[in-house]
Design goal:
eight-stranded mixed beta sheet, alpha/beta, 5 helices
């Protein structure tokens, strides 16, 4: 599978198509591709030169067996109990790699916040709004794009919640 689209932006072809469908064609020129993987939030922040919390992680969980996307800042961990409460679910677990790919069409480490194969419920942690710009995966582990958090949340169709794990 190729990791670049026909326009050479570095975005995954499905994500590039999602940008077109959302009227975000101008975002293609802002996608940044790196020779080394930006699979983890720490790798992405180091490559971009931004704070770890400016990375938007797109994480798939299973809430009572149903996939749900959680958007979280790169410096934080998701509190599964808070996700469970936000969804009114009995059980929330991290989705397995095959479920992530089947649900989103992307591999772990490259899942963008929108442009997925299937429609899922999306939660976005409010911590993302602490920044003017956040960076998210563009469909593969080597490409990221910048976006204002409120726009990212809107395009993802996300509900704002507080699901960040609190440190004591």
């Amino acid at each position: 599978m190729t990791t670049t689209d026909t326009e050479g932006s570095g975005a995954h072809p499905r994500f590039a198509e999602a940008l077109r469908e959302l009227g975000l064609d101008d975002l293609h020129s802002r996608v940044r591709r790196f020779p080394d993987a930006t699979r983890t939030a720490a790798e992405a922040a180091a490559a971009i030169g931004c704070e770890l919390s400016q990375i938007c992680k797109s994480l798939i969980f299973a809430a009572d067996g149903v996939p749900v996307l959680v958007l979280m800042d790169g410096a934080s961990r998701v509190d599964l109990d808070l996700v469970r409460e936000a969804l009114g679910a009995d059980k929330v677990t991290r989705a397995k790699a095959d479920v992530v790919r089947e649900t989103t069409g992307y591999a772990i480490g490259g899942v963008p916040p929108f442009g997925h194969r299937t429609r899922t419920r999306v939660l976005a942690d409010r911590s993302l709004l602490d920044h003017d710009v956040v960076w998210a995966a563009a469909g593969n582990p080597h490409a990221v794009f910048p976006m204002e958090p409120k726009d990212l949340v809107a395009h993802a169709g996300a509900t704002l919640v507080d699901v960040r794990e609190r440190t004591s």
